[in-house]
Each structure stands twice: as C-alpha cells, then as structure tokens.
C-alpha cells in the first residue's frame, strides 16, 4: 500500500492517478483546506474515485494519530509525502499555516515512518526555493542552501534537515525531491500560468512583477509525475540513506515567455501592467538534473509552449470556456 499525502492537491492527484493506473493500491490523505478552491480538490478526488484501489481520508496530517487511523503503520510499503502549505507569498500573511502543515506535518510523517515496520521508502516534496535568490544557475544539489528568501523556503529546507536526521538515527530510506515550478492540467489556481490563462480569457489585465523578467524552470506535470514514481521505486543506497534530487526542466523561461505561450495558446493578446518584484519572489530558478538523470533516467521532454497549450485546452474543457 502506498500512502500519498496531499492526494487532492495538484501533484498528489497526478501521482496517485499514475500509481493506480499501474495497478498499485493508494491510500490518499488530504485536509482539503481552503488555500485555494476546495471544489477543485474535490474534483480531483472524484476523478481518482473511479479508479480501482483508491481509498481516501480527509485528515490534517499534523494531528496526532491521524495518519495511523488512515493507514495502519504495518500496511505502509511506500510514502509519497506531498501535503504542505505551498506558495511563497502566502507565507508573508499566514506564517503559522507553514509551521503546522510543513514543520509539524513533516515531523508527523517522519514519526509515522519511524514505526512503520514494512516501509521501504519515504519520498517527500522539497522545493527549488531552498536555493534562495540566485541568478547563477544551474542549481546543483551540492550547492549551499542556507539563505532562504521566504518562510516557505525555510520550512522546506527544514524538512530536508529533519529527514537527514531521521535517516541517520533510524535508517529510514528517504528521497527529498526539489520540484521546480510544476504546471499542467488540474494545476494550481495560485500560480501564474493559471491566473494568466484565466485573465487573458476574461480580457483582464495581468500584473507582471519585475518587468516579467523573473525566470522559472517550468516543468510539465507529465515529465514530473513519472519521475516521482521512479524515485519511489529507487530507494537510495547512500549512507545515511537520504538523498535530495532536483526535478526540473533544466531550461528556464521568463514570465514574459510564459505570457507569450498563453497568448499563443488562447489566440488572444494579453493586457499587461508591471509591478516591482516582491522580496519573497526569487529572480530565477534553474535545475541541474544530472542526479535525476543518473538515478531515474529523468529526461524532461515537454516545452513550455506545448505544456501551456495542453494546460489551456484542459482549462477551457474543465470550465466550459
Ligand atoms: N507545484 C509546484 O510547482 C511545487 C514546487 C515546489 C514544491 N512543491 C511542493 O510539492 C507539494 C505538492 O504541491 P502542489 O503543487 O500539488 O500543491 P497543492 O496545494 O495543490 O497540494 C498540497 C495539498 O496538501 C494539502 N494539505 C496542506 N496542508 C495539509 C495538512 N496539514 N494535512 C493534510 N493535507 C494538507 C492541501 O489541501 C493540498 O491539497 C507541496 O509539498 C509543495 O510545497 C510544489
């Protein structure tokens, strides 16, 4: 049995679907919180409910005993831990959401894993944000990560450190995946590709921070989700048994490139205004994926233009635009 936390989230939905389609049983958990529209989370769960082998529990992973009630520890063979309070801006106004979901939540998952006798591997979500505000990519896993630009990034780096300790003390096999701006169908409404699509289709004005020159290593979900499952199936043989691995496209694009891709996919011209960059938004992200390639054969294939076209097609179908 694979436990997927954050199964009603964007990445959790895609990973759960792929596991189920491969005939693997999944217990999904999620709090369905209202950081963004819970109806979208429920729609993802409805899509998973039709697949054999899926069970879901609405829980807060940070609550004592909640994970154990959802899945008795001796039944867990693998964990894909994706539940978290995501988003860098929200951490300016709701810092304690990050404390609970990301710090207490991660520790609960580690304690669950510590006493799960048949567990083979815990894979958890980290983030490109741990690299801080840099423009000298590509970022390598061996680079220093001690200057986070947001509380979100600080909590993700803290998760990596807690995992390192639990690998050393208790031998729990773990992989921390540093995701670089995942996007695609059933994605996240708080992210730029989603809000730009929504606004362009409605004829509303886009606000571009830092003159649209901020660069992101946009990674399409159909490149990322199979790599997460490949990671699950390749527990580290390292000593201690914990590794962090970048999952990114290794081909950054600017926000202006993103707008151009949305314009092309919608066939409409965007109205734009510029605003200064917020300090929590880093100037660039750029993954070196040598490690993911060596360990999992990771090879991102989908270009930003193609990925945005697929997202826009999904968006129009989902909302009947
Ligand atoms: N999408 C990206 O580009 C990206 C980039 C870097 C890292 N990540 C990380 O990947 C993971 C998945 O991200 P996503 O994009 O799917 O985000 P998401 O917000 O769509 O999914 C996270 C899910 O976790 C759930 N959750 C939050 N707190 C919880 C709690 N205390 N108990 C139970 N469930 C809880 C939420 O309801 C949500 O459904 C997160 O850990 C995120 O920080 C994502």
Structure overview:
This protein has 321 residues and is an alpha/beta fold. 41% of the residues lie in helices and 17% in strands. It has one domain: Rossmann fold (3-Layer(aba) Sandwich), CATH 3.40.50.720. The chain is built from eleven helices and 13 strands. The strands form four sheets. A seven-stranded parallel β-sheet has the order 3-2-1-4-5-6-11, with helices on both faces. Strands 7-10 form a two-stranded parallel ribbon. Strands 8-13 form a two-stranded parallel sheet. Helix 1 links the parallel strand 1 (2-5) and strand 2 (26-30). The relative contact order is 0.14. Nicotinamide-adenine-dinucleotide binds at residues 6, 8-12, 30-33, 41, 60-62, 82-86, 101, 105, 125, 127, 179, 181-182, 188.
SSE layout and pairing:
Elements: E1 2-5, H1 10-21, E2 26-30, H2 38-49, E3 54-58, H3 66-70, E4 78-81, H4 90-93, H5 95-114, E5 121-127, H6 151-170, E6 174-179, E7 182-183, H7 192-202, E8 205-209, E9 215-216, E10 219-220, H8 221-232, E11 242-247, E12 253-254, H9 255-266, E13 271-275, H10 290-296, H11 304-319
Parallel strand pairs: 1-2, 1-4, 2-3, 4-5, 5-6, 6-11, 7-10, 8-13
Antiparallel strand pairs: 9-12
Helix pairs in contact: 1-2, 1-8, 5-6, 7-9, 9-11
The structure holds nicotinamide-adenine-dinucleotide.
Keywords:
321 residues, Rossmann fold, 7-stranded parallel β-sheet, globular, binds nicotinamide-adenine-dinucleotide, alpha/beta, 41% helix, two-stranded parallel ribbon
């Amino acid at each position: 049995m694979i436990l997927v936390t954050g199964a009603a989230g964007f990445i959790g939905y895609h990973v759960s679907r792929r596991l189920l389609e491969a005939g693997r049983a999944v217990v999904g958990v999620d709090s369905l919180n209202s950081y963004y529209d819970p109806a979208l989370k429920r729609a993802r769960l409805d899509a998973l409910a039709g697949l054999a082998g899926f069970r879901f529990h609405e829980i807060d992973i940070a609550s004592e005993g909640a994970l154990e009630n959802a899945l008795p520890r001796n039944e867990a063979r693998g964990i894909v831990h994706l539940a978290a309070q995501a988003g860098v801006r929200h951490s300016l106004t709701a810092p304690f959401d990050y404390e609970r979901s990301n710090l207490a939540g991660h520790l609960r998952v580690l304690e669950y894993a510590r006493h799960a006798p048949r567990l083979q591997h815990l894979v958890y979500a980290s983030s490109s944000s741990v690299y801080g505000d840099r423009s000298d990519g590509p970022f390598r896993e061996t680079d220093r990560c001690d200057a986070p630009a947001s509380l979100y990034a600080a909590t993700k780096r803290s998760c990596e450190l807690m995992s390192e300790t639990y690998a050393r003390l208790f031998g729990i096999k773990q992989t921390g995946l540093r995701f670089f701006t995942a996007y695609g169908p059933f994605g996240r409404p708080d992210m730029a590709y989603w809000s730009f699509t929504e606004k362009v289709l409605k004829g509303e004005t886009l606000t571009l921070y830092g003159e649209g020159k901020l660069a992101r290593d946009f990674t399409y979900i159909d490149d990322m989700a199979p790599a997460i499952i490949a990671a699950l199936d390749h527990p580290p043989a390292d000593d201690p048994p914990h590794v962090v691995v970048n999952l990114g496209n290794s081909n950054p694009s600017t926000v202006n490139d993103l707008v151009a891709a949305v314009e092309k996919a919608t066939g409409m011209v965007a109205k734009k205004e510029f605003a200064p960059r917020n300090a929590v938004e880093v100037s660039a992200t750029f993954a070196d994926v040598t490690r993911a390639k060596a360990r999992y054969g990771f090879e991102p294939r989908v270009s930003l233009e193609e990925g945005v076209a697929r997202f826009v097609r999904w968006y129009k179908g989902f909302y009947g635009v």
